[in-house]
Write a structure and sequence with these properties.
The chain is mainly alpha-helical and about 200 residues long. The protein has helices at about 25-35, 60-70, 80, 100-110, 115-130, 130-150, 155-165, 170-175, 180-190, and strands at about 10-15, 15-20, 40-45, 85-90, 95. The strands form two sheets. It has a three-stranded antiparallel β-sheet, with helices on both faces. Strands 4-5 form a two-stranded antiparallel ribbon.
Length: about 200
Amino acid sequence: MTVATTPTYTSFDGHRRLATGSLSVNALAMKRALEQGSKHTVLLFDDATGRTVEVDMRGSEADVLARVAPPPASSTTQADAAPRGRGRPKLGVVAREVTLLPRHWEWLSQQPGGASVTLRKLVEEAKRANSDKDQTRNAHERAYHFMVAIAGDLPGFEEATRALFANDAKALQAQISQWPDDIQAHTMTLAFGATQP
């Protein structure tokens, strides 16, 4: 069972970190930076993906907060309102097409519980076996997206990218040592989970 976590975001005014936290906290920090006449590009990043997030900064702080606030919970979800499809939606089971060779179908048909049960077991086993690799790959991809957006023109960018995908934290730190402190810290946090100062 996975535990739901609150999404976090990080905003930057040029190369200076403004805030890390909820979307609302970052939106307010960005709004204030823009109102104070920032001469830099103000960017917001989703910490889960490293990708930029667009926020409409028009109007008052209340207007901005109203646009980024999560929609109110409704008693009828979109899944309940949608026409019923195949599978067992209430159990979270969704039917989709799987294309296999005849020998694969033959093997699946001989397994206890049938094809669906066997495929679910195989997927869960693969997820467990590859969990560390998947987490490392996801961390490197989110750090890369962040680096491309904010540091693509900084010295050593290409070498830093190579160190990142080689999973070499020391080499990455060495390559980005001349970058602004906030960008260094956030890059290492996204890539390797280092704590921010």
